[in-house]
């Protein structure tokens, strides 16, 4: 079977989802799991875009040895210089450069001509080859380009030294039939195409990213670009889990294989969702909460008799845990550690103790704690990759249909000082946020608030995701970041909301400290 190379761009294109910005430590955590999962190429970032992106690519290059590490650039020498510096310690570095090839991009975005764009692309590839052997060239908006011009561009950049040519459906405009014909046309009309790997990068604006990616593979592409949970610009990118499991499940159709350890798909999906604050929709293929759930009596009867009657994928193949295993406060440390290990979590003693204390709190309220509760506990207590400035110690709320919602909070500050304050609002969550604001005093606007039940039942743990927009944005190298996400989980949804709001505020404050340190260092 032919091997399909999996190019993961969660940390670059995926992070461009509004509010999904990750700090360096969060990117490193995701990267290590991608490496364990067997991803072939990790696009670690766009080094020139910000100091944070530069440091992330630099650190990933040092720490990851089993994957190609790729840095994105525009087709100019300054971008390429910065990417080359960031990738200097990588075991297998790749520079990813390119230009638009559609007339709308050439005329309105680049404000140049076809010939000048072609020349600029060739020069960029030649310049990148001074630093690395592995150069990937993206022909942006290829789906809307004149095929004859696209063929000329690809032939020229391959002659210049490109080892991979990336064919993006940048706007998600193309249908599978059109996309398959385009990739097939490239294989038939670019005379030196055998010297490079064809890669496809499909967006999901019309819901066809996965279908287009698979059609590209069927017509000659041997690298596919995707993200965990399909996150990315606008409607997102092709979903890694969907592409990998389609190739795995339908080997009879595609005759292709990947190097992905599919059992790490679900844990990676959870990690990316928790760190970005982007909730996975319940009916999302492969990793959604309902992907392996059966509510119809007919379906339940069939699955109980023979799983394959209604399940084409064994849940364990993608790492979906058996939710029937439950724990209680009597399970003890050994039982909890064993179950967390089964779920793929490796915690040091300090991390485990924080998780255990939180587990006891939840177990006292719920009596039994299942897999999804444990995932929420680990996300809340362990998967935090910035220093907390303020810690929420206590929240108390009074509300009702004939009373004014009022909240009191107790918060411990950075110097250990304890603050208590109260405020009222239009509802209990609004009152809590107002009370927290009185203590912390960081101007912001809450722009998104969502609640998701982690488990079923009246005693379910609720997960709250919040996004706030800072009044005074954090500036990194001229790039302004305004939106910060937060998450919190608790059996009390108001407490979960308070935790999520505090998480977002602490994330904002940590970013401000980091920006101040950078400016101080530059000064």
The total beta strand count reads 16
Question: How does the helix and strand content classify structurally?
Answer: alpha/beta
**How many strands, what sense, and barrel or not for the largest sheet?**
8 strands, parallel, barrel
Low-confidence stretches: none
- Distance N terminus to C terminus? 56 Å
Architecture (CATH level 2) name of the largest domain: Alpha-Beta Barrel
What is the subunit organization of this protein?
single chain
Q: Order of strands across the widest beta sheet? A: 2-3-4-5-6-7-8-9
Number of DSSP helices?
17
Query: Into which percentage range does the β-strand content fall?
Result: 15-25%
Helix proportion of residues, in percent? 40-55%
Task: Summarize the topology.
Layout: E1 2-3, E2 5-8, H1 24-37, E3 41-45, H2 51-63, E4 68-72, H3 77-86, E5 93-100, H4 103-109, H5 114-128, E6 135-140, H6 147-160, E7 164-169, H7 176-189, E8 197-202, H8 209-218, E9 223-226, H9 240-249, H10 251-254, E10 256-257, H11 265-276, H12 297-305, H13 332-342, H14 349-366, H15 371-381, E11 391-398, E12 406-412, E13 418-424, H16 428-440, E14 444-453, E15 462-476, E16 479-490, H17 493-522
Helix pairs in contact: 1-2, 1-11, 2-3, 5-6, 7-8, 14-15, 16-17
């Amino acid at each position: 079977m032919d091997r399909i190379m999996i190019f993961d761009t969660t940390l670059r294109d995926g992070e461009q989802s509004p509010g999904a910005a990750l700090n360096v430590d969060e990117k490193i955590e995701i990267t290590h799991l991608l490496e364990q999962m067997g991803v072939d190429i990790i696009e670690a970032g766009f080094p020139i875009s910000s100091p944070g992106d530069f440091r992330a690519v630099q650190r990933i290059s040092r720490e990851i040895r089993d994957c190609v590490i790729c840095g994105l650039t525009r087709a100019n020498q300054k971008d390429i210089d910065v990417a080359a510096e960031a990738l200097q310690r990588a075991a297998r570095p790749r520079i990813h450069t390119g230009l638009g090839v559609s007339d709308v991009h050439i005329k309105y975005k680049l404000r140049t001509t076809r010939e000048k764009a072609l020349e600029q692309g060739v020069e960029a590839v030649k310049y990148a080859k001074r630093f690395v052997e592995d150069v990937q060239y993206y022909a942006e908006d290829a789906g809307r380009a004149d095929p004859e011009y696209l063929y000329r561009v690809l032939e020229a950049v391959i002659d210049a030294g490109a080892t991979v040519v990336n064919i993006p459906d940048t706007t998600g405009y193309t249908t599978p039939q059109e996309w398959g014909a385009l990739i097939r046309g490239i294989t038939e009309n670019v005379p030196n195409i055998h010297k490079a790997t064809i890669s496809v990068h499909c967006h999901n604006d019309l819901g066809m990213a996965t279908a287009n990616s698979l059609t590209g593979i069927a017509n000659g592409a041997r690298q596919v670009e995707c993200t965990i949970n399909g996150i990315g610009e606008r409607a997102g990118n092709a979903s890694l889990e969907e592409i990998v499991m389609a190739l795995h499940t339908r080997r009879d159709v595609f005759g292709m294989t990947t190097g992905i350890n599919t059992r790490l798909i679900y844990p990676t999906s959870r990690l990316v969702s928790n760190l970005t604050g982007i909730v996975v929709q319940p009916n999302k293929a492969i990793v959604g909460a309902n992907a392996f759930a059966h509510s119809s009596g007919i379906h339940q009867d069939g699955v109980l008799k023979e799983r394959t009657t209604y399940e084409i994928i064994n849940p364990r193949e993608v790492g979906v845990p058996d939710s029937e295993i439950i724990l209680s406060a009597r399970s003890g440390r050994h039982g909890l550690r064993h179950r967390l290990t089964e779920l793929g979590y490796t915690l040091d003693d300090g991390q485990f103790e924080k998780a255990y204390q939180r587990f006891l709190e939840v177990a006292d309220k719920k009596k039994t704690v299942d897999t999804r509760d444990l995932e929420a506990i680990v996300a809340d207590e362990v998967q935090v990759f910035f220093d907390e400035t303020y810690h929420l110690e206590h929240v108390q709320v009074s509300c009702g249909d004939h009373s004014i919602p009022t909240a009191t909070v107790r918060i411990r500050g950075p110097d250990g000082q304890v603050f208590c304050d109260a405020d009222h609002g239009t509802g209990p969550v609004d009152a809590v946020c107002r009370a927290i604001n009185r203590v912390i005093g960081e101007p912001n606007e809450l722009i998104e608030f969502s609640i998701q039940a982690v488990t079923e039942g009246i005693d379910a743990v609720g997960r709250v995701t919040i996004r706030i927009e800072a009044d005074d944005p954090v500036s990194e190298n001229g790039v302004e970041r305004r939106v910060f996400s937060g998450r919190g989980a608790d059996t009390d949804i108001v407490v979960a909301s308070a935790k999520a709001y505090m998480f977002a505020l602490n994330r904002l404050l940590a970013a401000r400290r980091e920006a101040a340190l950078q400016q101080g260092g530059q000064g």
